[in-house]
Amino acid sequence: MSAQMEGSLTRPAPTGIGGLLRNIGPGVVVSGSVVGSGELLVTTRMGADVGFVFLWGVIVASVVKYFIQLELGRQCLLHDDTTIAALDRVPGPRLLKTSWVAWLCAIGYFSVFVAVIGILGSVGGLLASVLPAIHYKIWATFVFLLVVALLWRGLYQDLEKMVTVLVAAFSLVVIGCLVVLQGTPHAMDLTEIASGFTFAMPPDGAFIALALMGSVGATAVELFMYPYWVREKGYPRFIGPDDGSSQWRERYRGWMRVLAMDAGVCTAIALVITCAYYLLGASVLSRLQVMPEGIAVVDQVSLIFTETLGPTAKGVFMVGAFCTLFSTLLVFAASSGRIGVDFLRQVGLAGVQSEAGRARWIRILQTTFPAFWLFVIVVKGDTPFLLVLLGANANNLLLIPMAYGVLHLAMREQQGRRMSLAVEMGLMLTIWAIINFTAINLYLTLTA
């Protein structure tokens, strides 16, 4: 691309809250994956297991990854890099001309397929509970076909609008359900809520707590996805290559403000909705002593609606739960195709080096990956919730090498391009919190 053409793509960043909000988007798409199985299944199960005592951990898990998301986005704006390409700049051993960190994170990313398989099985179980005459594996096949059909066109704008509607509608209902809860026998009191800030680490819930860190907020997988959606939104093109001019610095700072708002909105959405799910699980499922599991896990979680809004609300819950889980499948399939092709390009596979080859392979992988998920469900998919927990724990472990890579890249940037001292301290605190949270809960899980 010529310098003249590159310059023609640049644009000044919007100003004011309204302008910033009108130009966000990648975080909204990521929220479609963030607000999914972690909130609906893992968070409510954690509330059912331990009650209100772990509210502090839910809040930490929801907000602690904000600075990783911000710095991954910054690397994308500065270098127009995908996540794989950014991590490939971390020095150290290399295999097939690719950094060890890129390999480790890519393997970790695709290990989280275990959770997505569980989500597909849970959606099949949800639909089977509504129409039991059709087996849940047949329903899972229908969901697979729907995902593939919707992604075949491959347009970011369509996906962004679709996910926005899916996430927003049910999220509002869940928050409303928490408000209505106060007029039922399951109402919370201030003492119970205060018990959630004693910073207790319940040993009996350590395995689920690990899964919770890996499945709520912007998890490692969603963080991995984020730069791909940033590029498709066009932020790096709007800034243009660094020519050392004051105009470039102004565009960079302006679009970083947009990205910070975008990541902030994503984090805020995750925080509010995750807390709502947790409090509903602690208030309703814990008191009823219902521990969601198995193929009917979504049907069991529906008690958070029927016990607050009444039996007639079950239909609303089932529709909303389908939208929430389906949006996770949709965004994960779309992102996995892009990440898979990016990694194949990075290691030098010839067929994906051209743009035409890249587009063709994205479509192929967007079909192949969901087909693999479906195959596992059909062959052996009777424990979808366990698969969700295992995948969420893999997601948690992936955070550590990713956080290391992001910190390394952020510290290497030149003055004027690198993060502020406040963001640097926030990023280091984030990594400290993730490592300590993981180590403590691994110890509690192994010694329980």
What does this structure look like?
Helices cover 76% and strands 1% of the residues. With 448 residues, the chain is an all-alpha fold. It has one domain (3-112, 170-311, 382-447). The protein has a two-stranded antiparallel sheet. Residues 1-7 have low confidence and may be disordered.
Output the keywords.
single chain; 448 residues; mainly alpha; two-stranded antiparallel sheet; 22 helices; 76% helix; globular; disordered N terminus
Helix-strand layout with pairing:
Blueprint (H helix, E strand, L loop, with lengths): L2 H7 L6 H7 L3 H9 L2 H14 L4 H9 L2 H14 L3 H5 L6 E2 L2 E2 H12 L1 H18 L5 H16 L4 H26 L8 H6 L10 H10 L4 H14 L1 H5 L6 H43 L8 H5 L1 H7 L4 H33 L8 H26 L3 H29 L8 H27 L1
Antiparallel strand pairs: 1-2
Helix pairs in contact: 3-11, 3-14, 3-16, 3-19, 4-13, 4-16, 4-21, 5-13, 5-16, 6-14, 6-16, 6-21, 6-22, 8-21, 9-10, 9-19, 9-20, 9-21, 10-19, 10-20, 11-16, 11-18, 11-19, 13-21, 13-22, 14-19, 16-18, 19-20, 21-22
Number of helices: 22
* Topology order in helix (H) and strand (E) letters: HHHHHHHEEHHHHHHHHHHHHHHH
Major β-sheet annotation: 2 strands, antiparallel
The radius of gyration is 21 Å
Mean pLDDT: 86
Number of domains: 1
The residue ranges in which pLDDT falls below 50 over 5 or more consecutive positions are 1-7
Number of strands: 2
In percent terms, what proportion of residues is strand?
A: under 5%
Helix vs. strand class: mainly alpha
Give the overall form: globular
Give the proportion of residues in helices.
over 70%
Distance between the termini: 59 Å
With strands numbered from the N-terminus, the spatial order across the biggest sheet is: 1-2
